[in-house]
Give the backbone structure.
Amino acid sequence: MRPRLAVLTRIRRAALCCGHTRRLSSCTGSGLVVGSSREVVQRLGSKVEVRTAFISEEEEGALLRELEPGLKKKRYEFDHWDDAIHGYRETERLSWGAACEEVLNRVRSAAFPEGSPLLGPVHILDLDKTGYIKPHIDSVKFCGSTIAGLSLLSDSIMRLVKEGAADEWLDLLLPRHSLYILRDEARYNFTHEILKDEESVFNGKKVPRLRRISVICRNLPS
């Protein structure tokens, strides 16, 4: 089964800077976004958002109770078909129980304009503790201007790098229970990736990366 990860079609190896230390040049007041320069942070300020404590521990538990039975039937894969992801298992979900549907309605209200047509099934991506997502830009053929994801089970770091300009970058700290939103330029012109545990350092501080489940919503192309 190769579900929604068909959207991860554009890998940008030139943007890989994993072996380099990221020096803080500018940050947001929230302390959740740091970047290569003040100009980059300001330019993407309205296009990148991290909302902490977007869901409660109880709501995380409700999501996990619906997701775990299906995920446990799958094995973690370490050779993704287009080399985008390492150490993952995935699924899609179209129908949810009432508690989870309420959470997803909050995600939709927070991330997407009212009436925006959404990609039908919600994409679930389960990363093993040793897993990671390589730099990519979601295919414009399948996805629109906005990507929104809930972070379950673990903190993590998402790195954005300007396509064709590796010296322009943002690091996003994604705490457990948070919601991230990427819009417009941040979605189309910057690769995004989830760092592996041994590289998971935010503004000089180690952020342990455990098993992580992301619950991802996308809108359709206009």
